[in-house]
Specification:
- The chain has 10 helices and 4 strands; from the N terminus they run H-H-H-H-H-H-E-E-E-H-H-H-H-E.
- 24% of the residues are buried.
- It is mainly α.
- Strands 1-4 form a two-stranded antiparallel sheet. The protein has a two-stranded antiparallel ribbon with strand order 2-3.
- The N and C termini lie far apart (63 Å).
- A hairpin with a 3-residue loop joins strand 2 and strand 3.
- Helix 4 crosses helix 7.
Length: 334
Amino acid sequence: MKLEERFSSMETHMTVLEKDTRRIVSQQLEQLAANTEEGVFEEGGLGSTLKSEAESLKRAGELHQKLHRSCAELADEIETQLRESRQRGRRMRRPRLIKPAPTNAQIDLAEKKSRHFAQGITFYKLFWIFFMGCFAGVVVEVAWCFITRGHYESRVGLIYGPFNLVYGLGAWALSAALYRYRNRNPFFSFLGGFVIGSVIEYLCSWFQETVLGSTSWDYSNMPFNLNGRICLVYSLFWGVLGVLWIKEIYPRAAKWILKIPNKIGKPLTWVLLIFMVFNSFMTAATVLRWIDRREGDPPHSAFEEWMDRHYPDARMQKIFANLEFVEETPQQSG
């Protein structure tokens, strides 16, 4: 039976049920009104029955609303997948230097068929998205800096390798939050990107200033900013990025993750996770020691002496070229 026939049958059944329910309840309410006129009311009789039926109708109303939302979401998903499949078909027929991204529906099907270790939005998928985001973000920002300023400038956020946790966290958060909307209208991705990106950017700025005593960006001179940490313009950029991410970037990343064989996928994930944790620890330790040196604090352990020899101020400034300490920047508003 087709969906149209099913819903037509259900609509007829619901109409009959509504009429019968109204008739029965109307009779009971008339009886209640008559009893009230006579000053008779039984808590355990008609009153109890009507109270029970009111509760049943409330539950039925909630179920109907849930069904309405579910049907609307499913309809939107069907329309979105049809539109995206049509658009990709047109793009594939045109000569292009870069192939169009696969649709999320294609990724879902490929993961299901291969029973991939990173299928869906599991821990393994999110880690690889995070790891790739840490790397790709640095590459894009360095390239942008070279194009706009004509010279290379480090944009890394960790001392080992071309990685930046801010980009990784942004990729992780966008994927985790927007995955459920991957086959839905882009409006949901825009709204999610706007909110999630703004929150991530604010928290990263707050953490860096509070814990490390430094800043990497300041929007105090931008309109509609919040404590100089976020502003409306960049929040709108986050919204656009949310759409681009879940519709264009995430499917490409997931396609690359699909190339990782199942046999080595999980062990490799844990090796890279340990490396990133160690990398983050060493970065925090060297930055905090850098801060202590700026305040004239001598080393108090062999480990601090080792950091002073291998990560002096000049090297740290070269690695974190965009980092400025709070006392070196104008005081933020708010």
